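W.,

You were right to be curious about this one. When I first looked at the sequence I had no strong expectations either way, so I just let the prediction run and decided to look at it fresh. Below is the sequence, 173 residues in total, followed by the output.
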Amino acid sequence: MTHGMRTDTSPIHGADWRERATRYALLPLRVFLGITFIYAGIDKLTDSAFMKDSGAGSVGDMMRTVRDSSAIPALVDLALKSPSGFGYAIAFGELAVGIGTLIGLLARLAAFGGALISLSLWLTVSWASDPYYYGNDLAYLMAWIPLVLAGAPVLSLDAALHARRRRRRGGYR
């Protein structure tokens, strides 16, 4: 009996397993970010205090609180021109990003939108977090980048549409 490397390609030990794992590696990130952003959007839309211009728990008061400690106060000033409008824009943006990411429709665009939302929240709301890693918006921004680059190549509407177009062209890319 000889000892050494396995040469079979069983589903557990072979190249097939590694290739499959590589193909599906971004799926947990997609599911997490999609569900999280859907939840965040719904949470904002159903919170009667959040959408108000002022008052405890309102987007207006939150923006006024972070204005002087944000990296870009002008961005906060822009939001303060219509706090409730900004709140609705963020909430519907989070919903669109979350749904697009979860179902994999225009996944790169959805991920880019998620990255922009996370970047804007990092530069405004969580900029003053000290140390910086206490602010979760930077981590979300970094989590979006692989999805911006790779899209949703498996278990997505983008992949299904791509496969359908390829079949119509005769199987060629």
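Here's what jumped out at me. The chain has a mean pLDDT of 91. And, maybe more interesting for your project: Residues 83-103 form the longest helix (21 residues).

Coffee later to discuss?

I.
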